[in-house]
Automatic annotation (TrEMBL):
It holds the Pfam family DNA_pol3_delta2. InterPro entries: DNA_Rep/Repair_Clamp_Loader, P-loop_NTPase. This is DNA polymerase III subunit delta.
């Protein structure tokens, strides 16, 4: 993937590296799908002084989601597919800290990457804070965060923040035309709307082929769905498979389409705001409750239909 919008981040990083004293903790903040993971791996290699395209390096420690439990860890160790934990655990942070009691293996610097740092459990965050307060010599912490507000304020205050901007619609359109030239306009427009400036998210939407779902959602929110026919079509397009990434993408798409409409109506937008909040709730619950896809599609359609009816009333 081409990573657009990283120029300022690289300028800030390299300027700091060229200075007399490099800050020991960095927070790389921005929406998911902006290429922060690629940036941080390349930045860590520049920091250590090894080529970008090399494999694992003993002085670059990456902390991310581990196995859900001991049974899943056993599957991982056996080379089998395993289920990931929902957050980064305190035991993982403490394991990294034990490694920090020794000197770097091949030089004077070591990088510790935590991705995503905003998914650390409370105990993990508190444990990491101790290392940030008293960093080992030559150790630099690189924290990737999609929602930095979820981090402890005391962690944020000890980091130098580099922000990764979302892309505007024109840049997103150019990128998708380049990387996915065979995608139809409806699907591309749906991907751009739902991704909200995130190239990675847009490409994920393209692969999920949600163009028809976007068309139906817009029709529902624009004119309602008194006979339930559009909701039925939406359920058919979404399908009956329990595919969590796809269902999450559908919910993101519905929220994006509502956000488009809020600025287009006159009168009180309260119903739209309430509907958006309900979609946010469903998005948060979906991974845990595993809603039936058909029922979820009808629920989304009903929320959009009620917002559409409110729009009709607001516009007279």
């Amino acid at each position: 993937m081409k990573f657009i919008g990283h120029d300022e981040a690289w300028e800030e990083w390299r300027s700091a590296m060229a200075g007399s004293r490099m800050h020991h903790a960095w927070l790389l903040a921005g929406r998911k799908g902006l290429g922060k993971a690629s940036f941080v791996q390349s930045a860590a290699r520049e920091l250590i002084g090894v080529p970008r395209d090399t494999g694992d390096h003993p002085d670059i420690l990456t902390l991310t989601y581990g196995p859900k439990n001991k049974d899943e860890a056993k599957k991982r160790d056996e080379g089998k597919p395993f289920e990931l934990a929902r957050g980064i655990k305190v035991e993982q942070v403490r394991a990294i800290q034990r490694r920090l009691t020794t000197r770097p293996s091949m030089g004077t610097r070591r990088a510790v990457i935590i991705d995503p740092s905003d998914d650390m459990e409370v105990g993990a965050s508190n444990a990491l804070l101790k290392s940030l307060e008293e960093p080992p010599e030559g150790t630099f912490f690189l924290l990737v965060a999609h929602s930095p507000a979820r981090l402890l304020p005391t962690i944020r205050s000890r980091c130098r923040t580099v922000r990764f901007p979302s892309l505007d619609k024109n840049a997103m359109d150019d990128l998708l035309r380049d990387l996915a030239p065979d995608v139809d306009i409806a699907t591309r427009d749906a991907a751009i709307a739902a991704a909200a400036g995130s190239p990675g998210a847009a490409l994920s939407f393209v692969t999920l082929d949600l163009g028809k779902a976007a068309q139906l959602m817009r029709q529902i929110v624009e004119r309602g769905d008194r006979d339930f026919s559009l909701r039925g079509q939406l359920a058919g397009v979404i399908g009956g498979k329990q595919d969590i990434p796809r269902l999450q993408a559908v919910l993101d798409l519905a929220r994006a389409i509502l956000a488009e409409r809020i600025g287009q109506i006159t009168g009180n937008p309260r119903r739209f705001v309430d509907t958006h909040a309900e979609l946010v709730r469903l998005t948060g619950e979906q991974p845990t409750y595993n809603f039936d896809p058909g029922l979820l599609a009808m629920e989304i359609g009903t929320l959009l239909a009620s917002a559409g009816a409110a729009s009709e009333r607001a516009n007279g």
